[in-house]
Amino acid sequence: MTSPAEPEMTRREFVRKVLRRGAGAGLGASAVAAAWAGGSGQKVWQIDPAKCIQCGNCATYCVLGPSAVKCFHSFEICGYCEPCFGYFDPQAGDFPPGVDRQDAPAGAEDQLCPQGAIRRWRVEAERYEYQIDPDLCIGCGKCVKGCNAFGNGAFFLQIDHSLCVHCNECAIAAACPAQAFVRVDAAQPYLWKDEGGPRE
Length: 200
Prior knowledge:
Oligomer: single chain
Helix content: 10-25%
Shape: globular
Radius of gyration: 19 Å
């Protein structure tokens, strides 16, 4: 509650203030989500993976640059496809005879992500695990589209609430042609994707 002498704080100012205090106390950006979500009944924006059509608006309409929308990977439903079309560009050229695309070193021209935000490492003979670097991810959804077209949809977009400034009128939600942006309880702000579909 502000006193008459203090101007009312906007959400963006609140987030910046918490970030400054949180960083000083070693709490970092997670302090923002905890501080804002502390109030009972608070709602935040999130993307319903079942409705998302990977239109690319998340990368361009967010008030932040880069976007607060990031790609996430569900290891539980990953099919470890060979090759992974969430990682490899399906239009990339062929590799030399006898060289499996999955085993070949991936050059930037072969990767689907325009930012090189997806890292992979071998976990077994022909299995790789994938991880998204949130600092590089711009939320364009190209990897999600590739995974949905050729795989089982283990890549999906979510708003990263450690970055989101919690605009009342989310610019991306207004621009979303699929109405995939929904309001969810701030206490459970993510709609994870698993074998049973999105869940809170």
